[in-house]
Write a structure and sequence with these properties.
By secondary structure, the chain is mainly beta. It contains two helices and 24 strands. 43% of the residues are buried.
């Protein structure tokens, strides 16, 4: 009897161990993931390793699309119109499986559950006079947001069951971080693994800055060459990967131990189309082909390559 109980217990332990090991082990099966809609113009991306799904959002209507990396199956997770969301730019998933979404020029920050239900929404222009909520990053306690037009960073707590109050966490001067009068300034943002620093990219100048979370001190990261058109970022140890949209490539930046100097390496990626943001899935980056340079204007109609897509890129 004792032997039988031992065998059953051992089998249960093995089964649980296997299940744990297999969590997040999803095959990124396709070289390219087609997205629905002729006017989608996707921008942000976040991958959920627990489910094998990634999410991307539209700059034109705020729709959020869910895509499975194994099958490529897509579905509309949340309609922008239903949530009064005109754009869905940068996005992240927190420890409580909540999806945070940046609203761009609409100046909204929203948080949803992974069924697509809206939990909370903030109007950052009404609260803080924001200009363009572009990207976000999560650490153990907070989520931080960049503003491409106003020299501010916002944050809120993510540790409570209900999201905390949004705050204007940092205001800086043009002497500290130079903003161009037009175009995109603060864009992608990451947090270092020790959680001491934020790193942001300024698209207009190609400069990187380290921000001390404890003191709020700002330090320019000295580079061998600027990363102009820097958009989405991904930090793996001391290698920062920069999606440089206008180059159609991703560039590695090897940083020193205290994140004050960096060496920009050779770009990689094939057939990318104005690649905006990236997230890691297994041994690959999932790269959004935003094609934001093909949106057209009052006199020129949109001219994107269809279908819109997310590309699987091997990490060198």
């Amino acid at each position: 009897m004792k032997y039988s109980l031992f065998v059953v217990s051992l089998f249960a332990v093995i089964l649980l161990s296997c299940s744990k090991d297999e969590i997040g082990n999803f095959n990124v099966a396709k070289e390219s993931y087609a997205l629905p809609g002729d006017t989608l113009f996707p921008e942000g991306i976040v991958y959920n390793s627990k489910t094998g799904n990634f999410y991307t959002g539209s700059v034109t209507n705020g729709d959020i699309i869910q895509v499975n990396v194994v099958s490529g199956e897509t579905k509309l997770l949340a309609s922008g119109a239903a949530h009064n969301r005109k754009a869905a730019i940068g996005m992240k998933i927190d420890q409580m499986n909540r999806l945070w979404v940046c609203g761009g020029a609409d100046n909204k920050i929203q948080v949803l559950d992974l069924d697509g239900k809206l939990i909370k929404s903030w109007d950052t222009n009404a609260l803080f006079g924001s200009g363009f909520i572009n990207d976000c990053i999560i650490d153990n306690t907070h989520i931080y947001f960049t503003d491409s037009r106003v020299r501010k960073i916002y944050r809120t707590s993510i540790t409570e069951s209900q999201p905390g109050n949004l705050e204007e966490w940092l205001t800086f001067t043009d002497a500290q971080i130079t903003y161009a009068a037009t175009g995109t300034n603060a864009n992608g943002i990451v947090s270092t693994s020790d959680s001491k620093y934020l790193i942001i990219v300024i698209s207009s100048s190609g400069k990187l800055y380290r921000i001390d979370k404890a003191t709020k001190a700002i330090t320019e990261i000295v580079l061998n060459t600027p990363v102009t058109s820097g958009d989405g970022l991904y930090l793996d140890g001391n290698t920062l990967y920069v999606a440089r949209n206008a180059t159609n490539l991703i560039f590695p930046v090897v940083l020193n131990a205290d994140y004050t100097q960096g060496t920009v390496g050779n770009g990689f990626g094939t057939n990318l189309l104005f690649n905006t943001t990236i997230d890691k899935a297994g041994d690959y980056f999932l790269v959004v082909n935003g094609q934001l340079n093909k949106r057209g204007n009052a006199t020129t109609p949109p001219s994107p390559v269809l279908p819109f897509s997310v590309t699987r890129v091997a990490i060198p």
